[in-house]
């Protein structure tokens, strides 16, 4: 009787504390994911209300869609440079802000602020910079690089997208790197310096090695967030010029909600989800091995 009462009490506590989270997860993520997965096997049309089952036809269409494949390659390039630039920026900013310099707390707050700005607002801010401010300064001071708007060039628009995203991500990743650096034992660093290790050697062999968990988290987050960028792409370039900066997520939304091809669009979303999961889990596994060796 007492065991049953204890089990009932434990169940009640679990429902009380974990119930709201599980309910939110089910409603916000699990149910939409299952419904979306079902839609990939149908030819759903919101106008005619046609939800006929078509099997794997939509997945076949995904790999026949040359536009989606082209934009997927563009997305991979964008993610590659964004992850590298944002992590390097965050790493060195965090390194500087854990060196004991004056005003560290204020600087940390300042660098973190861009992460609080929504992607739509951030895109319009950078659009104004690239379209008006930078060209004005370029023409006034003879800076050829900024003489014209970057958003009118197919090559420069790509870098505008990378720069804006990296600027937003760097502050968030910086906080994680700071937490990682704070966990490095100071006595180990001091002992290495006494033994004659230089600043670069201490950074490479001690600080970086012992901060691998932070590196794993930062790369994982920057990968997943870069692959799923949509709002910044919409407000900054709108896929232009000449559809040259359309990310995979932008194409998926256009396909589903503007072209009314919900089944194919959802199938492309599932393919993108699998790619993101595979890349993120692979990098986590490989970097985790370094963490064990350190």
Helix/strand/pairing class, anyone? Answer: mainly alpha
Report the CATH C-level class of the largest domain: Mainly Alpha
The pLDDT mean sits at 83
Rg (CA only): 24 Å
How many domains, in number, for the residues? 2
How many H/I helical runs? 12
CATH superfamily of the largest domain: MetI-like
N-to-C series of helices and strands: HEEHHHHHHHHHHH
Strand content is under 5%
Number of DSSP-assigned strands: 2
The level of helicity is over 70%
Placed side by side, the strands forming the largest sheet appear as 1-2
Contiguous uncertain segments of 5+ residues: none
Determine the CATH topology of the largest domain. MetI-like fold
Largest sheet: 2 strands, antiparallel
Verbal overview:
With 294 residues, the chain is mainly alpha-helical. 76% of the residues lie in helices and 3% in strands. The protein folds into two domains: 2-39, no CATH class; 60-289, MetI-like fold, CATH 1.10.3720. β1 (42-45) and β2 (50-53) form a beta hairpin. α2 (57-64) packs across α12 (262-293). The longest helix has 38 residues, at 2-39. The radius of gyration is 24 Å and the shape is globular. The chain starts with a helix and ends with a helix.
Task: From the structure above, extract its key features.
mainly alpha, two-stranded antiparallel sheet, 294 residues, globular, 2 domains, 2 strands, MetI-like fold, 12 helices
Write the layout of secondary structure elements.
Elements: H1 2-39, E1 42-45, E2 50-53, H2 57-64, H3 66-96, H4 104-112, H5 119-141, H6 154-182, H7 186-194, H8 199-210, H9 212-227, H10 231-236, H11 248-258, H12 262-293
Antiparallel strand pairs: 1-2
